[in-house]
Amino acid sequence: MVTERLEGVRTRIREAADACGRDPGEIRLVAVSKTVPADRVREAIDAGVSILGENYIQEALEKHHLLSDGAVSWHFIGHLQSNKAKHAVRIFDLIHSVDRLKLVRELDKGAAKIDKVQKILIQVNIAEEATKSGVHETDLLELIKAASGLDNISIQGLMTMPPYFDDPEAARPFFAELRRLRDRIEDEKIPNVGMAELSMGMTGDFEAAIQEGATLVRIGTAIFGERT
Ligand SMILES: *Cc1c(COP(=O)(O)O)cnc(C)c1O
């Protein structure tokens, strides 16, 4: 079941890339496995998933333990409390949801302890929704400049989660805005800051995100089915 769904998602990614003249190889699929039990996650790994996205530290640590033999990269995409940073650096290759300096400092400290350079994305709350994580646009550059000075942190790009819409086209302006922000930050040429990655697009809207430049799409429901 997971295998067929995954194949369907891969086809849609390829078609969306083709439709806008992008190389499908530029777009990586993050299979969002929050709340999905380890045995079903293993099915996805066996079917060729190479990146897992998790939202909760405790759940991720447990699954990582059960699935640590699989050749898979773990990404963190949920809200991260600063006091969990030391756990996060142990298992995650990329943390998509970094949105404040206190958290960046804790990640830097935790990464230094294990001799790691932690790759991160900065999450931007473009719609400035009170209920969502993410730095507001007005504070983005300052956060990036501050984080760029830390030895054990490597910024790779930006992430966003637009407000929920039934119509995926309604999300498109938010994806376009994230790309504009990325371009503007690139123009600043801040040392030690990479802007190659744009993490945007979920089950309901990933085709629009790909057309607007996504390099990482985070897809759960379309692969694993509705979460219970
Ligand atoms: C759950 C989640 C996703 C995946 O959502 P689906 O609609 O199930 O594809 C993507 N990104 C984040 C940050 C999430 O929390």
Tell me what you see in this structure.
By secondary structure, the chain is an alpha/beta fold. The chain contains 9 helices and 8 strands. The chain has helices at 2-19, 38-46, 57-66, 85-91, 101-113, 137-148, 172-188, 206-211, 221-224; strands spanning 28-32, 51-54, 73-76, 94-98, 118-124, 153-160, 193-199, 216-219. An 8-stranded parallel sheet has the order 7-6-5-4-3-2-1-8. Strand 2, helix 3 (57-66) and strand 3 form a beta-alpha-beta unit. The structure holds pyridoxal-5'-phosphate. Pyridoxal-5'-phosphate is lined by residues 32, 34, 55, 77-78, 161, 202-204, 218-221.
Decide which structural class fits the backbone: alpha/beta
CATH class: Alpha Beta
Instruction: Quote the average pLDDT.
Output: 97
Distance between the termini: 17 Å
Topology of helices and strands:
Layout: H1 2-19, E1 28-32, H2 38-46, E2 51-54, H3 57-66, E3 73-76, H4 85-91, E4 94-98, H5 101-113, E5 118-124, H6 137-148, E6 153-160, H7 172-188, E7 193-199, H8 206-211, E8 216-219, H9 221-224
The structure holds pyridoxal-5'-phosphate.
Pyridoxal-5'-phosphate is lined by residues 32, 34, 55, 77-78, 161, 202-204, 218-221.
Key traits:
228 residues, alpha/beta, TIM Barrel, globular, 8-stranded parallel beta sheet, binds pyridoxal-5'-phosphate, 19% strand
